[in-house]
């Protein structure tokens, strides 16, 4: 991956997003770490800068179109046209569907699905003008098979896959590919907050259900993302790949 690559990673301050941002930087891309955790993002940029990697942090409220637009404009101003977009930002809670309310459904859809649509809508014209682009949506195995206690989240992540497939057809002639990576259960700060600490028995039961008998680590998602984000992946578009320790075999 050459230094000509400019990559935006939403939700890039921690967890899978941070691992992706670091991997892209190590591959030579200039990376924009966008999200709603300014201190965490700035710390990640500082870490990467110490190794000589080019990175910048950008505050992003993915639920607001003006914030997305400002983030993309800042990217172009600092590094140039983005050639890679990683739609990774997400949010989740775990509770039975009948204990949830409309506001929670709308938040799940807005952050996990519509947020990615906002970012993609802003970036696509730039990629079209350049005649090249790689978009990778970080969906979830919950979006492929459904997950109890994560109904709205599963719906949003399934929508992210459908969005990816339909858009892949529309932009294929522009030199743009769009694919999805679906992490299975992965040890991240979010999983610790919403699952491991509040629902230890559920965490243990899910661990037993995974053929590899463990949760994944953020860095284990990287190979799939780098493959789809590479220039060599020129004949792959509209595809969905699970990274789940064998939990989902499709």
From TrEMBL:
Segments forming domain Ketoreductase: 5-184
SMART domains, sorted: PKS_KR
Membrane-spanning parts: none
A Pfam family it matches: adh_short_C2
GO biological process: monocarboxylic acid metabolic process; steroid metabolic process
Keyword Lipid metabolism: yes
UniProt-listed InterPro entries: KR_dom, NAD(P)-bd_dom_sf, Sc_DH/Rdtase_CS, SDR, SDR_fam
GO molecular function, a single term: oxidoreductase activity
Keywords per UniProt: Lipid metabolism, Oxidoreductase, Steroid metabolism
Region forming the signal peptide: none
NCBIfam families with a match to the protein in the record: PRK12826.1-2
Family to which this protein belongs: Belongs to the short-chain dehydrogenases/reductases (SDR) family.
Listed name of the protein: 2-hydroxycyclohexanecarboxyl-CoA dehydrogenase
Species assigned in the record: Sulfobacillus acidophilus
Source species taxonomy: Bacteria, Bacillati, Bacillota, Clostridia, Eubacteriales
């Amino acid at each position: 991956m050459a230094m000509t690559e400019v990559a935006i990673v939403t939700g890039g301050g921690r967890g899978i997003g941070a691992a992706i941002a670091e991997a892209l930087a190590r591959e030579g891309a200039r990376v924009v770490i966008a999200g709603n955790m300014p201190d965490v993002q700035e710390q990640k940029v500082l870490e990467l800068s110490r190794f000589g990697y080019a990175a910048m942090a950008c505050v992003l409220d993915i639920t607001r179109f003006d914030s997305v637009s400002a983030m993309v404009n800042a990217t172009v101003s600092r590094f140039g046209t983005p050639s890679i977009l990683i739609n990774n930002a997400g949010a989740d809670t775990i509770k039975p569907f009948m204990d949830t309310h409309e506001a929670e459904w709308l938040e799940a859809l807005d952050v996990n699905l519509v947020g990615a649509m906002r970012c993609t809508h802003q970036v696509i014209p730039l990629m079209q003008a350049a005649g090249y682009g790689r978009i990778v949506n970080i969906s979830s195995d919950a979006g492929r098979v459904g997950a109890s206690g994560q109904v709205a989240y599963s719906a949003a992540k399934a929508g992210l896959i459908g969005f990816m497939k339909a858009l892949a057809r529309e932009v294929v002639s522009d030199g743009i590919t769009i694919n999805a990576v679906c992490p299975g259960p992965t040890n991240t700060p979010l999983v610790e907050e919403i699952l491991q600490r509040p629902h230890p028995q559920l965490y243990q039961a899910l661990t037993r259900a995974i053929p590899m008998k463990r949760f994944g680590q953020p860095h284990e998602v990287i190979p799939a993302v780098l493959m789809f984000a590479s220039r060599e992946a020129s004949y792959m578009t509209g595809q969905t790949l699970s990274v789940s320790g064998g939990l989902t075999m499709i």
